[in-house]
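User: quick one, sequence for these tokens?
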């Protein structure tokens, strides 16, 4: 009797279908006459102004909670972004981008995170130019890539360098942040005209994207602005900002804090509790007379502005939209990092200001990768990383993000610098082959991911009726230098693992015989969602039946057949089945 928990839809997403091939229907599977009818008939009916009865409405990309995971749904199916973000200036030129797209496709990316700037789209007020957008979409489609566009408008890395010059020049209409008595090159989020101008341009862009991509879904999501927040001071000190700061905290904000008290970020809750959970008072009264109140004040004003921009864009074409974060360093005051940026401790403030933004994303370069992932994957916020480190580190971290935190996307920064046949490409290749299974296991909450090194050499977890003890692998007394991977429960007493440099031992968690043995380990791969076993692993490859092993990573001499390790080798995919005995 098959176990319903392990029923897996194995159909691999058809690359051509999701990327605007000539016929959007599954004609390739039909006999020739039906194929012609299936392609030609709908077109003929449409030309005649008739809607064929079987035409499917084209649902834009969107987020959906499916079981334990929030997934990005593209053309009706969950999609994992194996992406990379371009350097800031690359996509300002189609000529410059021409040779980059095929390299990124060869690297195994399915999505390119692509900057688009307000200054190039609206060089003169009200005169929009979407030539670059159309060109980038044509290039992306030719390379079979999806894109996530970055709307670099009022703010980029705290500053306002991407605003059109007609905005930069008019400091009366588009007021600046004031720091230490001087206006700086940061647009103030208090500026109503700035919010209107940014919103209008963004709405025009989204309307255009809806028109040219509403049926093809090359564009998966939009990032609104980039790493916003005040740099150089903890808050805006303009007259308008000072007046608002001396006034009452808006009732909508305190009402939100009250209604969500039990789920608030622990740091925010502690701060509000410390000051008596007040529902009325000035910012300094409610949150204390420190830079923390300044940060919350800025978060509220950036959030109100950007929620409004996002809502205007969504009204024109509704696809997922998010805001990214420059993560604060340990013990650094707001202003050294952009004050008001959606750090975990102020995400609730952003949510209180509106509901248009779908989620908040970390630009995760920090070494405590796992901790930051957890801080963003909480309270309904799904994990997507528009920026991260690439190379061997990114190649390992992607397994943690997608495996452990049900992430739906990963995207190292400066992707055009990455080695086409490098470690990231190797990871993407294996993850891409696993995609339908991994997506299914994410929603069933039946996947764990990990990254191990000598300072963090083991991890334990319970899944599928067993306790799994995962450690750095060893061979002939030599320990692996690092390890990474993910493990999925795929059937009773059965697991599929992928990765390098680790070993797993099992202990029972359910009633039955007390000992666990390895019945079999097979190395294989997935083709169109189907498991293709290649060889039975035993002896040295499973420590004489004592552990489930994935290539020891030792970079030095060859010893008793100990393989040289190369970062560029694909991670192993293995299936293990277990048995119990007395
Ligand atoms: C983070 C920013 O978001 C990116 O646009 C880029 O400026 C990088 N930093 C540079 O490393």
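Assistant:
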């Amino acid at each position: 009797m098959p176990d319903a928990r392990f029923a897996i839809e194995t159909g691999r997403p058809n690359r051509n279908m999701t990327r605007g091939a000539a016929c959007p229907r599954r004609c390739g599977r039909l006999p020739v006459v039906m194929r012609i009818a299936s392609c030609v008939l709908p077109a003929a009916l449409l030309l005649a102004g008739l809607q064929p009865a079987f035409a499917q409405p084209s649902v834009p990309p969107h987020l959906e909670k499916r079981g334990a995971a929030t997934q990005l749904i593209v053309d009706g199916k969950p999609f994992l972004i194996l992406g990379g973000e371009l350097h800031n200036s690359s996509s300002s030129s189609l000529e410059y981008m021409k040779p980059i797209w095929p390299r990124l496709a060869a690297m195994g990316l399915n999505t390119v995170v692509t900057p688009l700037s307000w200054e190039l789209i609206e060089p003169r007020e009200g005169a929009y130019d979407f030539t670059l957008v159309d060109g980038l979409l044509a290039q992306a489609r030719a390379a079979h890539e999806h894109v996530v566009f970055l709307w670099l408008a009022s703010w980029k890395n705290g500053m306002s360098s991407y605003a059109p010059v007609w905005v930069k020049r008019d400091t009366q209409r588009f007021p600046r942040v004031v720091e230490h008595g001087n206006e700086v090159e940061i647009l103030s989020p208090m500026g109503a005209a700035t919010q209107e101008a940014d919103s209008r341009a963004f709405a025009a862009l989204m309307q255009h994207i809806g028109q040219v991509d509403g049926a093809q879904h090359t564009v998966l999501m939009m990032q609104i602005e980039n790493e916003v927040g005040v740099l150089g001071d903890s808050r805006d000190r303009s007259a308008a900002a000072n007046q608002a700061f001396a006034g009452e905290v808006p009732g909508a904000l305190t009402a939100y804090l009250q209604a969500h008290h039990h789920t608030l970020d622990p740091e925010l809750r502690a701060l509000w509790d410390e000051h008596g959970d007040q529902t009325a008072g000035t910012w300094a009264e409610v949150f204390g007379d420190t830079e923390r109140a300044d940060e919350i004040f800025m978060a509220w004003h950036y959030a109100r502005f950007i929620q409004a921009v996002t809502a205007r864009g969504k009204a024109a074409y509704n696809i997922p939209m998010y805001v990214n974060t420059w993560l604060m360093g340990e013990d650094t005051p707001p202003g050294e990092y952009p004050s008001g940026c959606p750090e975990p401790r102020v995400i609730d403030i952003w949510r209180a200001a509106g509901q248009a933004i779908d989620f908040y994303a970390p630009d995760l370069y920090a070494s405590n990768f796992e901790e930051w992932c957890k801080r963003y994957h909480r309270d309904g916020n799904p994990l997507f990383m528009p920026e991260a480190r690439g190379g061997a580190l990114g190649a390992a971290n992607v397994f943690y993000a997608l495996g452990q935190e049900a992430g739906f996307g990963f995207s190292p920064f400066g992707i055009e610098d990455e080695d086409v046949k490098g470690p990231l490409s190797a990871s993407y290749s294996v993850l891409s082959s696993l995609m339908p299974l991994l997506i299914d296991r994410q929603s069933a909450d039946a996947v764990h991911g990990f990254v191990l090194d000598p300072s963090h050499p083991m991890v334990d977890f319970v899944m599928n009726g067993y306790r799994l003890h995962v450690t750095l692998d060893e061979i002939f007394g030599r320990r692996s230098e690092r390890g990474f991977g993910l493990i999925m429960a795929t059937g009773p007493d059965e697991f599929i693992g992928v990765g390098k440099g680790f070993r797993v031992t099992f202990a029972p968690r359910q009633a039955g015989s007390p000992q666990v043995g390895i019945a079999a380990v097979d190395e294989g791969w997935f083709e169109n969602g189907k498991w293709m076993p290649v060889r039975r692993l035993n002896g040295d490859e499973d420590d004489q039946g004592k552990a489930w092993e994935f290539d020891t990573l030792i970079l030095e001499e060859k010893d008793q057949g100990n393989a040289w390790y190369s970062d560029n080798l694909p991670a192993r995919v293995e299936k293990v089945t277990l048995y119990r005995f007395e």
